[in-house]
UniProtKB/TrEMBL annotation:
This is Flavin-dependent thymidylate synthase. Its EC number is 2.1.1.148. Belongs to the thymidylate synthase ThyX family. CDD domains: ThyX. DUMP binds at residues 109-112, 120-124, 201, 228. It comes from the Bacteria. The keyword Methyltransferase applies. Homotetramer. Binds 4 FAD per tetramer. Each FAD binding site is formed by three monomers.
Length: 306
């Protein structure tokens, strides 16, 4: 379950107590504040706070005193210009703080993005919940034969069932051992010492859930989303990135629109790729052999054109 009834009551209480402010307010972000958007089987993404809006990006770019906005169209044009020309610092003037619940193996990929501030749930201090990511059978696939870092054909139903049995059995067993190691009473109620939580956690598998608060500026968030909302990213982190994309699209619609156009939906061509495209536009038939590109580069180039 992503949130318990008690946690939902806390979220509802926060959403029921609006306050007055002189700060920039994004109506699109306000509708997400505190709400837990479910991801995977037990995870979620919650918007906890944000700073700035589309206008704040333009204010910073123009170093203006007031709103500095000439019109919404002007702002959108400026934002698209900034994005197109990699003038990134105005985007750093907006920030977002998220509460994320995610499996540990997803957190390991996520934490590689160093340009964020993170505070993680302490498994030295607290007892971890018995919550493990169990993939949907549709996500259980064999190792890809063309991409060493990916998955290929789906497993057969029998093979999926066998894998899920193993995952469930291992999760149950390791959590039982964790609970047994930290327990301060034996099964018959006799007091015992119990192992420290910081040590007992070491045998828990990487599909157990952790949680953190994650704060990042919009420029670095776009970099994260560019990599993790991409089709090449692992499904289990991509679903989180997709949810964050939806929140950002509501928070800063013009900036997200420019990002979706130039980065997410756009493509970067190498000099060789550009030369091939120019030859093709002139009517020449170009093949991998005549392109000057490796097989992998050619495959990716064709993927861009398709
Ligand atoms: C598809 C995919 C596969 C991957 N596979 C692997 C893998 O097999 N093994 C692995 O270890 N990682 C892997 N990674 C992680 C990847 O190498 C990056 O660590 C991760 O994507 C974070 O990117 P980043 O460093 O650009 O982001 P951030 O840490 O947020 O940094 C943003 C930018 O800030 C600058 N920056 C930040 N810190 C420094 C620094 N110390 N020095 C110089 N510049 C800095 C850089 O310009 C950087 O691009 C993979 C990532 C992806 C998307």
């Amino acid at each position: 379950m992503p949130v318990t009834p008690d946690q939902q009551a806390e979220i509802d209480a926060l959403r029921a107590s609006p306050r007055q402010t002189l700060r920039a307010v994004s109506d699109g972000a306000e509708k997400h504040l505190y709400t837990a958007h479910p991801v995977l089987d037990h995870g979620f993404v919650r918007l906890i706070d944000y700073m700035g809006d589309d206008a704040a990006i333009c204010q910073a770019a123009r170093v203006s005193y007031g709103k500095g906005t000439k019109s919404v169209q002007n702002d959108e044009g400026l934002i698209r210009y900034l994005m197109r020309h990699w003038h990134s610092t105005p985007f750093e003037m907006c920030e977002i703080k998220l509460h994320v619940k995610l499996p540990v193996f997803v957190a390991r990929q996520w934490i590689r993005h160093r340009t964020a501030n993170v505070n993680e749930y302490s498994a030295r201090y607290s007892i971890l919940d018995r919550e493990f990511y169990m993939p949907d059978p549709s996500q259980l696939a064999a190792q890809s034969t063309i991409n060493n870092q990916g998955r290929g054909a789906s497993l057969t139903p029998d093979e999926s069932a066998r894998v899920l049995d193993i995952l469930k059995g291992d999760a149950a067993q390791t959590y039982d051992h964790y609970a047994e190691m930290i327990a301060e009473e034996g099964p018959d109620g006799t007091p015992k010492q119990g192992l420290a939580r910081e040590l007992a956690r070491m045998n828990l598998p990487a599909n157990i859930y952790t949680q953190w608060y994650w704060k990042v500026d919009l420029h670095n968030l776009f970099h994260f989303l560019r990599l993790r909302a991409d089709a090449h990213a692992q499904y289990e982190i991509r679903v989180y990135a997709d949810v964050i994309c939806n929140i950002v699209a509501d928070w800063v619609p013009a900036a997200y629109g420019a990002f979706a156009d130039y980065r997410l939906g756009g493509a970067v061509l190498s000099a060789k790729g550009l030369a091939c495209l120019q030859r093709m536009l002139k009517g020449e038939e170009v093949t991998q052999e005549t392109s000057g590109m490796s097989k992998g580069e050619w495959r990716e180039f064709q993927g861009v054109l398709a």
